[in-house]
Design goal:
Layout: E1 2-6, H1 13-26, E2 32-37, E3 48-52, H2 53-56, E4 65-68, H3 81-104, E5 111-117, E6 125-129, H4 139-151, E7 161-166, E8 168-170, H5 175-185, E9 190-192, E10 198-199, E11 201-203, H6 204-223, E12 244-249, E13 255-256, H7 257-268, E14 274-276, H8 278-285, H9 290-293, E15 296-298, H10 301-306, H11 315-321
Helix pairs in contact: 1-6, 3-4, 7-11
């Protein structure tokens, strides 16, 4: 199997590449992974190929699966107007390049997995949200929605699309947890605002496991001449018969910020007395503070319905098994 990954060297793409390589080697299956990059000199493992966006436009190489993960971190910087434009462009431009390749190649991929985030649902408090839930309009929703709608255009070329709406990914190597470990280990970690906001998280191991599961399920269904849509409620309405499936990549046990704070502090054997007031968070981060103050209770119904078994379904288990 040949897999092309945009954002392959990132926090998720690199972990996915390592895990699926190990699995396929263990089963003596052929696998070749190519990272799409703007810099041909980018560091990469020996078993990974590199391809620049310029070469992709004229490449005759074929891929069975495309994994579209490129995009600047939404929580990395304050949301100025320029930052909002950069966040959108970092997602739209790579996706447009992939669509151009799909349109031009004679051998169409069997599946496009395209990244998104649970921000698509907007701010909805502690209301349980599944893949069939509606949304509230805010910047995070608009960003995710525009990205998703562009990716879905791959269906016009007969390529099935799986949209993965990712929650807060937990792993000590990066992401939110990577940023929090230092202050928590110093004993100055604490809850945000009133701590009641719900955090929909997933361990990086389960994110990778779920992505591999989605690939294998979709390819197996195509081999059996079945639609790759898990259920009707989970299918986007499109103008052709090519399936589009939504998956929430979150653990089945979301927690409040208060519970997250206490669980991480307990795991690290550190106190968690501090609280960052809502007013201070808004002053520090402006509009982006919504990511910290307003929760979302997003559940992985489509994954559960499809039979995925979470390896780390609880936060404490994720912290322990990932050696945080």
């Amino acid at each position: 199997m040949n897999i092309l990954i945009s954002g392959g060297s990132g926090f998720l793409g690199s972990a996915f590449s390592k895990e699926i390589t190990q699995r396929y080697q263990g089963m003596n299956k052929d696998l070749q992974i190519t990272w799409l990059t703007r810099d041909s000199r980018q560091a990469h493992p020996d078993n990974i190929d590199l391809m620049t966006y310029d070469k992709l436009a004229t490449s005759d190489k074929t891929f069975d699966v495309i994994l579209n993960l490129a995009g600047a971190g939404i929580a990395d910087k304050r949301w100025s107007d320029d930052r909002k434009e950069a966040l959108l462009a970092s997602r739209i431009k790579p996706t447009e390049s992939l669509l151009a390749y799909i349109a031009s190649t004679g051998h169409k991929p069997k599946l496009l997995i395209s990244g998104s985030a649970i921000g698509w649902y907007g701010t909805q408090g502690d209301k349980p949200l599944t893949e069939s839930s509606g949304f509230e309009t805010d910047f995070a929703h608009k960003l995710c929605d525009e990205w998703e709608k562009l990716a879905v255009r791959a269906t016009t070329y007969g390529v099935p699309v799986a949209i993965v709406r990712t929650g807060v990914v937990i792993h000590p190597d990066g992401g939110m947890l990577g940023k929090l470990l230092a202050p928590f280990k110093m004993g100055v970690g604490g809850q945000l605002a009133n701590g009641k906001q719900v955090m929909s998280w997933i361990s990086r191991e389960d994110w990778v496991g779920a992505a591999i599961f989605i690939i294998e399920q979709h390819l197996a269904n195509q081999t059996n001449n079945q639609q790759s849509v898990s259920n009707d409620d989970n299918a986007l309405e499109i103008d052709n018969n090519t399936p589009v499936t939504i998956y929430n990549l979150t653990a089945p046990n979301p927690v409040t910020n208060h519970t997250f704070t206490k669980t991480l502090g307990s795991h690290l054997h550190r106190p968690t007395f501090f609280t960052l007031p809502e007013a201070l968070l808004k002053l520090m981060f402006g509009e982006m503070s919504t990511l910290l103050i307003d929760g979302q209770k997003v559940l992985p119904q489509a994954l559960l319905d499809a039979g995925y078994e979470f390896k780390q379904p609880t936060l404490r288990q994720a912290l322990e098994e990932q050696k945080v």
